[in-house]
Amino acid sequence: MKKSKIYTLKNGLKLIFCQDTSKHCTIANLFVKFGGINKKVILNDNEFNITDGTAHFLEHLLIEHSTYGNAILEFEKNRTKSNGFTNKDVTEFYIDSVYNFEEDLIKLINIVNKPNFKVEDIEETKPAIIKEIMMKKDNKYADLAKLDYECLFRNIKHANILGEVSDIENMNYEYIKKCYDIFYNIKNQILFISGNFDMKKIKELVEKTYEDIIKEDINYKVVKVDEPKEIVKKEGIIKKDVHTDFVRLTYKVDTSHLSNKEQVKLSFYLDYFLSYLFDNSSKIYSNLVKDKICDYSISYNYELVDKYTLVTIGTTTNNHDRFISEIEKAIISKELNKEKFELKKKKTIIDIILREDNLSSTIGPFIDNVISYNYFNIDTIEDVQEHNFVDYKNIINSLDFSNYCITKMIREKNNKY
Q: What is the pLDDT of residues 68-112, one digit of tens each?
């Protein structure tokens, strides 16, 4: 990214600029810190419970019933791509504009901050979301993720982003409006603007547009949980209509001792570590395929939940014991390879260079840093060049992988296969 700048405006809005005048488009991503993980807040010294699916429901309402009508169709008039997304942490509204960016940006800010939905719009929105929920039930892995949380956490619930059908059916205007007023305050928003634009002019435009927005600043507190490092139970099983069982191990690793910057660095180091152990060129994978323990790749990923980094490794296999044993041994041994580390580091640098060709690819990691790790810096080549094997070894060895659960999605006995 050619040039970046971060502001905190007088109204509390975080405004982040990533300017690249070589590009032909400009993207605005407006985030509201309200997602599926939000379950309750303290409001006027009382607990206010958040129904599963609320953040996602509000996303639909604001887009489909904006002051401009359906916002996606409105932006299409300027040939502007737009949409919204909700995950466990945030709700995002974005535009990808080539023409009339300033006009589009004003509309985006107003869509999020000047709600236009009415009582009847609540009922009109429900059927599409219920259909989305029913379609998600075809995703067999959704229940497995919920099972992981039940095994890992005592006080943190799985982020059911869509909610259940009954949750949506019971939504009403008063409740939805109250949630909007609580979470959509300006201090709870982050606006990323990236691409070809004039920083000074757009900053003034953003400030002026927000001056016309009058909102009550509702004081609330997010309920903090004290989640112990010990897991709830070692194993969980669900039965599904699958041809081959799916088995995975999820490690609950306390990474609260790391700074925000170190958490970002850990994300690189975990990628180096897990890819060396489990990708398709690894010894473990080759042995498991040779012995017909698994036919497909070993999947692995990691995410930050509260103060814990969850590291998940899984595959399709009917030989549960052998797969589990191989993963357990690999994680305990923490085998590290300097040559592979250097190769992975070089590839990461190449990826950073190549992503400059694509605006979305460039801004994506920056957004991840801010949303996931509260780290307001973009990853640079210089950052990766500072990665070294000794530091990598020390950080990986500092991680406690002793707390983990095993979850299985197994074939039902009456399965036709």
A: 999 999 999 999 999 999 999 999 999 999 999 999 999 999 999
Torsion, CA 230, CA 333, CA 264, CA 225, rounded to 10: 0
Residues paired with 252 in a beta bridge: 310
The residue type found at 409 is M
Rounded-to-integer distance, Cα 277 and Cα 259, Å: 26
Q: Picking from 218-227, 318-327, 374-383, which range would have the lowest pLDDT averaged per residue?
A: 218-227
Any idea how long the chain is? Answer: 417
> Around Cβ 140, how many Cβ atoms within 10 Å?
13
Helix, strand or coil, per DSSP, at residue 191: strand
* pTM listed for this prediction: 0.93
- Cα angle vertex 249, ends 278, 272, to 5°? 30
- Report pLDDT digits (tens) over 48-79: 999 999 999 999 999 999 999 999 999 999 99
173 φ/ψ sector (left φ>0, alpha ψ -120 to 50, else beta) = alpha
Distances (CA, A) of 275 to 270, 282, 284, 296: 8, 8, 11, 15
Packing angle between helix 199-211 and helix 101-113, nearest 10 degrees? 30
Domains annotated for the chain, with CATH where assigned, are 3-222 (3.30.830.10), 235-411 (3.30.830.10)
Model confidence at 417, pLDDT cuts 50, 70, 90, reads very low
CB atoms within 10 A of CB 33: 19
What is the pLDDT at residue 1? 53
8 A C-beta contact, residue 88 and residue 35? yes
3-state secondary structure of 379: coil
Q: Are 90 and 371 in contact (CB under 8 A)?
A: yes
Q: Which residues contact 114 (CB under 8 A, 6 or more apart)?
A: 67, 213
Number of Cβ within 10 Å of residue 181's Cβ equals 15
